[in-house]
Every structure is written in C-alpha cells, then in structure tokens.
Amino acid sequence: MARITAGLGSSHVPAIGAAQDSGRINEPYWRRLFSGYEWSRRWMDAVKPDVVILVYNDHASAFSLDIIPTFAIGCAEKFPPADEGWGPRPVPTVNGHAELAWHLAESLILDEFDMTIMNRLDVDHGLTVPLSLMFGQPEAWPVKVIPLAVNVIQYPPPTAHRCYRLGQAIARAVAAYPEDLNVQVWGTGGMSHQLTGTRAGFINTAFDTMFLDKLSDEPEVLYSLSHEDYVREAGSEGMELIMWLIMRGALEGRVRELHRFYHVPASNTAVGHIVLASGRAG
Q1: What CATH number does residue 134 fall under?
Q2: What is the DSSP string of the chain?
Q3: What are the residue numbers of the active site?
Q4: What's the pLDDT tens digit per position in 10-43?
Q5: Measured CA distances, 190 to 68, 103, 130, 177 (Å)
Q6: Which domain holds residue 243?
Q7: Which of 43, 93, 119, 229 has the smallest number of Cβ neighbours within 10 A?
Q8: Distance, CA of 194 to CA of 191 (rounded, Å)
Q9: Structural domains in the chain (count)
C-alpha cells in the first residue's frame, strides 16, 4: 500500500523564488536563508519520494473573491506555473498524480470533507517556492505533486483543528491506496508576518519557536488555538501556519524531528522550515 513517510513544513515567500530565479542566492542577504535548506536537499535526494501532497494557499492566481473554496484538490495530470502579474516563474510545469488525487478526493469527501475538485489549476509561488527550495532549478521536478489549496485569505478560514483532522483523513486515504508509493505531505506558508495595516512588518519569534517546538510532540496545543490567537500572535498572514497542521495530522502519532531551520527576515517574513519523519516510516 501507499505510505506517508515524512512531512515537511516551509515558508513560501515569493521573494525567495525571485531571488532564486535571478541567481541571487549567494548574495549576503539571501545566502543564510538558502543554506538552511541544504541539509533537506541532500536528505530529499536520498529518500526520493514518489508523490508530494503539497498544502498551500493560492494568492488570487487560480481563485478570486468570486469563488473561494475552503479546501481544493488538484486532480489534473499537469499544473502550469501561474502568471502572478509579472509572468509565470521560469520553473517546470508540475506533474500531478491523477490516480492518487482522485482516490484522495473520493476518500476525503466520503469522510465528510467537502473538497473542491480542480481538473485545471495554475499554481503560484505558494506551491512552486517550496519545490524550488527543496529541488533547486531542475529541468523537471523529480516528484509528482498533488496540490491541496486551503483558504487562509478570506474570513472564515477553516479552524486549526479542522486542518489537523483533514491531515488525519489524508493519512487514512493514503493507507487505503493499493499502489506501493512513498508519499510525503508538505505544509507551507508562514511563519509570523503581517504585510499591511498598523502592524505591517510584525514578526513574533517567540511564537514561531513555540510552534516549531510543539509541532512534533504536542500538536494539540497548536490545533486548539483560535483564528484570533493566530492573527494576534503570528500576524494576519501568519494564519497560513494552520496549513502545517494538515501535514502534522497526516503523520499521526509519534514523529521524529530530523531538521529545523529558522531565519528572520526574508522580505518582512519569518522563515521557518522543519522535516519530520513518520513514526510508521520503515
């Protein structure tokens, strides 16, 4: 059967992608950030997952305020990079795993999660920046990707607990898929940041560190927090952290922290990264 072997959390700041695309990763401002992912790149090359279920949020590229799905799953064969106003990023088209994606959609809907099925989906920096951080600038991405978009833009977003429970439902669905696949789940976005308003530039290192500390052994502390807690402690865009809880719920039970990195700032954002091995990964 398919198995979830690991989870990964990472920020998806658009300026990171721009720095990588323009060859600026060795500039003093960016070098420290990209060095925090070097261990993970080596690890990824060694473990070679077949499929990544990549949890992210769309930034008005595929969805507008006219249609706002709470959870949307990409079931297509391919997902082109989105034009975010200055042309698509110069990165490869994302190849999907339609068979597993349709299995997930069926299982999750029957498990009482109302998924929006996307047979066509352009993916923006929320999805492509984490891929670039982990795989560099290849001619083709070395894994198949199932995009899972979460609304964290328009109130009301799903609760942190709902996200964690969706992760648990994903774990059940993957375990029921008959093909032998090495699957990872990535949660992206965050960490603390606020881009507008009187708290623009807000970063809360203490909260970010607590979040990373609790993610492995006490996720209930994190999924018990309210929307107001996340906005107060992590900033309005820090709400993206609830997507990391989908990844953590998909791992279930005990996990092992393999790597952690934290850096401030990257374009007014606290950048966090963590790699967790599933306790069931053999």
Answers
A1: 3.40.830.10
A2: --EEEEEEEE---HHHHHHHHTT-TTSHHHHHHHHTTHHHHHHHHHH--SEEEEEE---SSS--TT---SEEEE-SSEEPBPB-SS-B-SSPPEE--HHHHHHHHHHHHHTT--PEEESS--B-HHHHHHHHHHH-S-SS-SSEEEEEEE--SSSSPPPHHHHHHHHHHHHHHHHT--S--EEEEEEE--SS---SSTTTT---HHHHHHHHHHHHH-HHHHHT--HHHHHHHH-SGGGGGHHHHHHHHHH-S-EEEEEEEEES-SSS--EEEEEEEETT--
A3: 125, 193
A4: 999 999 999 999 999 999 999 999 999 999 999 9
A5: 20, 29, 12, 31
A6: 3-278
A7: 119
A8: 10
A9: 1
Contact 191, 239 (CB under 8 A): no
List, for residues 213-247, the tens digit of each pLDDT value: 999 999 999 999 999 999 999 999 999 999 999 99
